[in-house]
Design a protein that fits this description.
199 residues, globular, 7-stranded antiparallel beta sheet
Length: 199
């Protein structure tokens, strides 16, 4: 064994003299708020029934990273089966996506890109989710929007979340955290602010 030491030492010294391997610089990632550091401030509620019965009510929340609208409605279609399993659910979800496309066709948006659709479970509730990238026609400002739709307590519950592009790197964690807290506190009753610190 002692005869191997000189050879091992020489090999270690030679490997230390090799040219260092260049590592390409990492692409910049938008600053990501740590979980629990985004405070969503309640802004206002809007009653939509007067304009169109069945559209219910929405609550707007705002923070330094974006804004969220929480919609509660039934489309005047009676009781909705919980989660995403109601036979009418898929048509309603596609309608939510289509209304964004129509806004683009009417000239409100210069671009609308629809991302992948997926089902996920948050706080014991099944949701269908879609991401959208939207460019405003007048300001040319781009933002990323996420729609989460489910049925709960006999009504549809929709979260539409919008973030200036590029969205924070942990946007999924931010969205999940808001929805978890909102489901626990009750989407019907808007809160002045979640007990979090906005840094």
């Amino acid at each position: 064994m002692t005869k191997l030491w000189p050879a091992l030492l020489a090999a270690a010294l030679l490997s230390g003299c090799a040219a260092p391997t260049a590592t390409p610089p990492a692409a910049p990632v938008p600053a990501a708020p740590a979980a629990g550091t985004v405070a969503w401030q309640y802004v206002r509620s809007t009653w939509h029934e007067a304009r169109q019965p069945g559209l219910g009510i929405s609550h707007r929340y705002q923070s330094r990273v974006g804004w969220i609208d929480v919609y509660l409605y039934d489309m005047k279609q009676g009781h909705w089966q919980a989660g995403v399993g109601d036979p009418r659910f898929e048509a309603q979800f596609q309608s939510s996506v289509e209304e964004i496309r129509l806004a683009g066709a009417r000239g409100l948006y210069a671009e609308v890109e629809v991302g992948p659709i997926s089902d996920l479970r948050i706080e014991g509730q099944d949701f269908r989710r879609v991401s959208l990238r939207i460019v405003h026609a007048v300001t040319r400002k781009a933002y990323e929007s996420f729609t989460f739709l489910t049925a709960r307590n006999g009504r549809l519950l929709k979260y539409r979340m919008s973030f200036d592009a590029p969205a924070p790197a942990d946007v999924d964690a931010i969205a999940r955290e808001f929805i978890e807290r909102n489901l626990r506190s009750g989407p019907d009753v808007p809160r002045a602010a979640h007990p979090l610190v906005d840094t």
